[in-house]
Amino acid sequence: MEKILKGPALKLGEDVNTDIIVPSKFMIYIEPEELGKHALEGYGADFPPKLKNYKLIVAGENFGCGSAREQAVTCLKGAGLLAVVAKSFARTFFRNAINLGFPVVACPEVVDAVNDGEEITVDLAAGCVWLRDQKFSFPPLPPFLMEMLEAGGLEPRIRNYISQAG
User: Fold this and answer.
1) Strands 134-137 and 83-86
2) DSSP letter string, the chain
3) What structural domains and CATH numbers belong to the chain?
């Protein structure tokens, strides 16, 4: 996993719930790429193709609220998105994201400043987001969570730990 993530940002609003991220009728799929074809289809069937123009999501408060489905994170990864920057996250979504190796960053100030389609740079290690020539800081993730992201999630991190200890 890269520590510096860069690309155009899709700006969404408040309370983006897991049923918007991946509607329940698509829970029949388990492959990330197949789920990704339906990412954010809760906004309408014409929405998923638009995601090809974006690499990051920027959103308001309570991103990932609703059900605890892990597929919401898998869906965003399958759509080719690199991370979500939001004002805040539903706790279960946040933990699912880290467990599945998908970066999520709480940085309210950049959310208010960014426009849809603008390029942002998220530096996970430095704890900052760059927009135009402005730097927005966020509390960096603790080292053990960065290790999980770098490994690709909790399961690969545990496998790495076991193989190193053995």
Assistant:
1) unpaired
2) --SEEEEEEEE--S--BHHHHS-GGGTT--SHHHHHTTTTGGG-TTSGGGGGG-SEEEE-TTBTBSS--THHHHHHHHTT--EEEES-B-HHHHHHHHHTT--EEE-HHHHHH--TT-EEEEETTTTEEEETTEEEE-PPPPHHHHHHHHHTSHHHHHHHHHHHH-
3) 4-165 (3.20.19.10)
The reply to whether the predicted model has a pTM over 0.90 is: yes
Tens digit of pLDDT for each residue in 13-71? 999 999 999 999 998 888 899 999 999 999 999 999 999 999 999 999 999 999 888 99
Per residue in 112-150, pLDDT (tens digit) is 999 999 999 999 999 999 999 999 999 988 898 899 999
Amino acid occupying residue 126: A
